[in-house]
Design goal:
Structural class: mainly alpha
Strand order of the largest sheet: 1-2
Strand content: under 5%
Helix content: 55-70%
Shape: globular
Radius of gyration: 24 Å
Number of strands: 4
Distance between the termini: 77 Å
Order of helices and strands: HHHHHHHHHHHHHHHHHEEEEHHHHH
Largest sheet: 2 strands, antiparallel
Number of helices: 22
Length: 507
């Protein structure tokens, strides 16, 4: 007797059973008690079944797809390490971009994983829960593969030895950390607007595409391969981000003003965070692909313009401060590098004055502003350094209460004047760096008065002591190795010895 073979399920049936088929209605507890957080933000959902999963991916298909990508990625990472790939990069200065990425961006992947895990629990719609679960796993994979891809550098270069402490304590890393802390302490719909839409859909290309291209151009094949491996995940996340926005907008027209306010807020917070990326592109890559301004034009002005034109049929307008952010693209990378040049003695990576060739490249890319406002500054600092007066700022800067960036950015229409705003709440004065950050503070002052500001914490004696050496030790930085100017650093000396040895070996 032959056993009848079970009929194989079609993709559509399997998807339905493994996602929507896992849904249930509670019986002994009301649904509002089981899912207490998906209504208080004011978002009205009339039909959770209208959620469309962009990729219709089931968990078994997900594991198969990702494991194949993993095999290819780790083959390249192993090859990079076995062949001493760190010797093939253009210049050891490039590794400082890796340090900033690894300490500033990689922990955000883990924060995103925790955030999606949390909000996925709190949606009563099965489609949204499954989508959040998939993305939570993606983000966890990203932090792991980023650390593995770049861990080879940790064997040979300084500043990558204590990521968890640095993420929680170092002053400039509070900028990306506070972005995700803010998102994760918001409601579930605002979290998705912040991360899935504003960050993943509107701004992620500004982070990943130029940085991965820069890695390729500078000989860092391990990081490039990680970027390619993550790109298909990012494409899925971007599509999900757009689906989330459209889902909320199509459910009820009363959702529109709430969503618009979140888009305005998180776009501005994202642009402040990406100031670090602009600095990396214009100053930290020895061989550059494009300027920050060019990347902004391509990935926000052109691509973002088309996106918001599409969303206008729902009543959504471009982010409130988009025009200001576009004007800032002329200035922000230079001003950010100036801040880090001043405070590199308190950072976990090195800075330097660009070479003449690099200054000429910046003049070409920023013909309207660089020679007028920034080149004279860098040339003056270089002269001071040659005279043995390399400048380090030993004062503590005021920080923006919202984005936590030192108040070093200027008014965009007047680059000689520091941009400075203030708000009063319960008799106390709070400072912000821009109209965008002030508006965010004024809408939710009770939230932002609780911000953990690194400079304030130092003044309060919560960071290891009153002297800068005490604070740097509390940061877990190795003084004289991780910090200070690149020129004269142990890293520069070691790099030059390696290159000399390669020349001798080549005959």
């Amino acid at each position: 007797m032959t056993q009848k073979k079970a009929k194989k399920l079609g993709l559509k049936q399997r998807y339905a059973l493994m996602t929507r088929g896992l849904d249930w209605e509670t019986t002994y507890q009301p649904m509002d008690k089981v899912y207490p957080y998906d209504t208080y933000e004011g978002i009205i959902i009339n039909d959770w079944d209208a959620w469309e999963d962009p990729f219709r991916l089931t968990m078994d298909a997900y594991w198969k797809f990702q494991s194949e990508k993993e095999r290819k990625l780790y083959a390249v990472i192993d090859s990079f390490a076995q062949n001493n790939g760190h010797l093939g990069i253009t210049d050891a200065r490039y590794v400082n971009a890796i340090k900033l990425f690894l300490t500033g961006v990689s922990p955000l992947e883990y924060q995103a994983s925790r955030g999606f895990t949390h909000v996925g629990r709190h949606f009563r719609g099965a489609g949204a829960r499954v989508a959040c679960q998939m993305q939570a796993i993606d983000e966890l994979r990203h932090v792991q593969t980023q650390i593995h891809a770049m861990s080879h550098y940790n064997k040979f270069f300084d500043g990558m030895h204590s990521g968890p402490y640095m993420h929680d304590r170092v002053w400039y890393l509070s900028v990306p950390k506070s972005f995700f802390d803010d998102a994760r302490t918001a409601g579930p719909f605002e979290f998705l607007t912040a991360i899935s839409f504003s960050f993943e859909y509107v701004l992620t290309n500004l982070l990943f595409v130029p940085f991965m291209s820069g890695a390729a151009y500078n000989g860092d094949m391990a990081t490039v391969t990680f970027g390619f491996s993550a790109q298909s995940d990012e494409a899925r996340h971007m599509t999900l981000g757009l689906e989330i926005i459209k889902f909320m907008l199509e459910q009820d027209e009363r959702n529109i003003p709430i969503v618009q306010r979140w888009i305005d807020k998180w776009f501005w917070r994202g642009t402040r965070l990406l100031a670090l990326v602009g600095m990396m592109m214009d100053y930290m890559l020895p061989k550059r692909i494009m300027s920050w301004k060019e990347a902004w034009e391509i990935y926000f002005v052109e691509a973002g313009g088309a996106l918001f034109e599409d969303l206008s049929r729902y009543g959504i307008k471009p982010p409130k401060f988009a025009e200001l952010a576009t004007r800032e693209a002329e200035h922000i990378s230079h001003q950010a590098w100036g801040i880090f040049y001043n405070y590199t003695h308190a950072a976990g990576f090195h800075t330097w004055i660009p070479t003449d060739e690099e200054l000429d490249w910046l003049s070409e890319k920023y013909p309207n502003t660089f020679d007028r406002y920034y080149r004279p500054r860098f040339e003056y600092w270089r002269e001071q350094e040659k005279a043995g007066k390399r400048f380090y700022n030993n004062t503590l800067p005021m920080l923006c209460q919202v984005c936590q960036i030192p108040m070093g950015f200027t008014e965009m229409d007047d680059p000689g004047t520091i941009s400075f705003r203030s708000s009063t709440y319960k008799g106390e004065t709070y400072h912000s760096c821009s109209d965008g950050c002030k508006e965010i503070f004024d809408h939710e002052p009770e939230k932002y008065v609780q911000a953990w500001l690194p400079v304030h914490q130092i003044y309060q004696g919560n960071c290891g002591g009153a002297d800068i050496e005490d604070v740097l030790k509390w940061y877990h930085l190795n003084l004289g190795a991780d910090n200070l100017d690149y020129n004269g650093s142990p890293e520069q000396k070691l790099w030059e010895e390696w290159q000399a040895a390669r020349v001798r070996a080549a005959g």
